[in-house]
Here is the input.
Amino acid sequence: MPDEITPAATPPSPPAANDGAPRLVPLGDGPGKLERHPTDGWTLTRPLAMSWATQRLFRGLISVIAPIPEGPNFPDALDRVEIQARELLAYVPRLGALGLVVAIWLLAFSTWWRLKSVRLVYHLPRERAAALLSQLDRSRLKLVRLMIFGVRAVVLSSYFDQPEVHAAMGYDPVGWMHERIEVRRRLLQGERARAQDLIEPTNPGGISPSDFDQTPSPGTASLAGRIDAWSPPEGGTASSEQGKA
Here is the structure.
């Protein structure tokens, strides 16, 4: 449990009056440093407690699921992914976390109950182990599919959240957040939205070009052009085909 915070002796001063006019930009709305792991007084939970055996099985599955060998080389990759994944699981409801722990054991011993090998799955060559786990994605039993999906989601979300992986992919979350904060500030100040302010407008239904500033930014087509170029198929609406396992 985090330490109890003692309230300040003096209450904060009320915001300055603005003659009754609505405040478009709230006080204290600055983006700050946008640190990914800020030390702003919030206490991060401790990693989910695991027995030595469960932790060992989990680390073995991480070595199979996370693309650590193919990704950037950074120190303690396995340790960092494990700790962050267990911190994530600490915020999951207890019943859900217990289900993930059971799934870890079942996946690690899946070579036994599937009669594939007498060795644990992560003791097999990595390519074969990954292929055996991927086969569970196509299981006829929904419970088995959910089991591999849950463990894989926790592992991969923790791996792809590492700064070194962001750098290797050319992903700059802090820069993107600064851009979105600036867009929000402009909108709150009464400026009209621009076409480039939208994030992947793949579904333009209900969007009117008159709602946006049609001045395109360099290298960016206007929203009106993108809407005009989009047309649903005859007798239906645009949709994406999803393969069936």
Q: What stands out?
A: Confidence is low (pLDDT under 50) at residues 1-15, 22-28, 203-209, 214-245. The CA atoms of residues 47 and 86 lie 5 Å apart.
